[in-house]
What we know:
The chain is α+β, with helices and mostly antiparallel strands. It has a domain at about 45-120: 2-Layer Sandwich (Alpha-Beta Plaits). Helices cover about 25% and strands about 30% of the residues. Strands 4-5-3-8 form a four-stranded antiparallel beta sheet, with helices on one face. A two-stranded antiparallel sheet has the order 1-2. The longest helix is centred in the N-terminal third of the chain and has 11 residues, at about 5-15. The radius of gyration is 23 Å and the shape is elongated. This is RRM domain-containing protein.
Amino acid sequence: MSCIEDCNAVIENLNGKEFLGRTLRVNFSSKPKPKEPLYPETEHKLFVGNLSWSVTNEILTQAFQEYGTVVGARVLYDGETGRSRGYGFVCYSTQAEMEAAVAALNDVELEGRAMRVSLAQGKRA
């Protein structure tokens, strides 16, 4: 609706009316809740690719915490199969920690595979 008056008119005219054998309930929607991040994030975020299927969030955190305070680490999984997608993200508290991790861990083996570590890019449109 373009204005509050239109909304009120629709509610007044349709709320409680029957449509295709069902009673309509028309009202204002409640305010949407802000989306909670799936894990703690900062602007100091790394992309970690070529992960072994066995790598978990905990293993990823352990591998990266030697280079600074890991605020959050997450391996992404396929929603249908539950299998790892082979990549994840790690967030640090400072840029210096993030840069140290990239320099030290890119092409380093974790669980049998050489990780590809780089600065995370924004979401693609």
